[in-house]
Fold this sequence. Notes:
Elements: H1 3-16, H2 22-29, H3 33-45, E1 50-53, E2 57-60, H4 73-86, H5 92-107, H6 111-121, E3 124-126, H7 135-142, H8 162-171, E4 173-180, E5 187-200, E6 203-210, E7 215-220, E8 224-233, H9 242-247, E9 256-262, H10 264-267, E10 279-285, E11 288-295, H11 298-305, E12 312-316, H12 318-335
Parallel strand pairs: 3-5
Antiparallel strand pairs: 1-2, 4-5, 4-8, 5-6, 6-7, 9-11, 9-12, 10-11
Amino acid sequence: xxxxxxxxxxxxxxxxxxxxxxxxxxxxxxxxxxxxxxxxxxxxxxxxxxxxxxxxxxxxxxxxxxxxxxxxxxxxxxxxxxxxxxxxxxxxxxxxxxxxxxxxxxxxxxxxxxxxxxxxxxxxxxxxxxxxxxxxxxxxxxxxxxxxxxxxxxxxxxxxxxxxxxxxxxxxxxxxxxxxxxxxxxxxxxxxxxxxxxxxxxxxxxxxxxxxxxxxxxxxxxxxxxxxxxxxxxxxxxxxxxxxxxxxxxxxxxxxxxxxxxxxxxxxxxxxxxxxxxxxxxxxxxxxxxxxxxxxxxxxxxxxxxxxxxxxxxxxxxxxxxxxxxxxxxxxxxxxx
Length: 337
């Protein structure tokens, strides 16, 4: 961040809090406290009424306000992504307030950017699993990746290329990616035609027509190691829209619907892990708790279910049943050999 942007951001930050310390500001902007002192002096010389109290911190004098703030397209698009995620995480009143705030942001951006946002809005979908924030996974991984923790103290998402995805979706550009599928350790080069972003199982997925496989494919963004937009464009009407893809059965072939009854005693231990396998809903059942899943990884889900032994009953999900039988036979053979 250059000095002009930092000083501007510092002024905005001062307006969001009643008082801030030089230490907090230096950590926030990753500069020395001496640099913060110089930036504060620059704002004072520009006529900004900044007060200071020893041992407390800096604050903006009462009554001072900046003119209306303009938003960049990237900032507004990021807030749009946030809105999609919050749909299944906020109550109706809070979500309504957030949408009103986002509309105010839309009102102060350029007309061309408004068209961009409106077009991008239809290219995003979030699967309402009921949990968008994998707390167990964050706690487990944060010890291994402390350098990836964001400014809020939370582990940053491992998903990449969201900003690039926004651009190619609007321009309908062909993209060359290096991709490693979930069930393989090999990286393949794919030329794809993106149609939308879909969030489920804690990750963003780029849905696209794959020229290598000659079909629509689901590319999890954290498994994309290279992302290179091409100059070639494709006609929008030549491919399904994201909603058409999601509504058609061929677009759901990689997701298997599974229903499992967990005994009442064991259901309380399932916890957040169920969200890793596409948990949708649960309801009381005469034999325990019936949980429904839409999983892209039936084999891995079967491995997870093995730990519950006889305390589960698979009602639907043929791949799960088959995998559980195979794994059980392997275990029996191993321990009785």
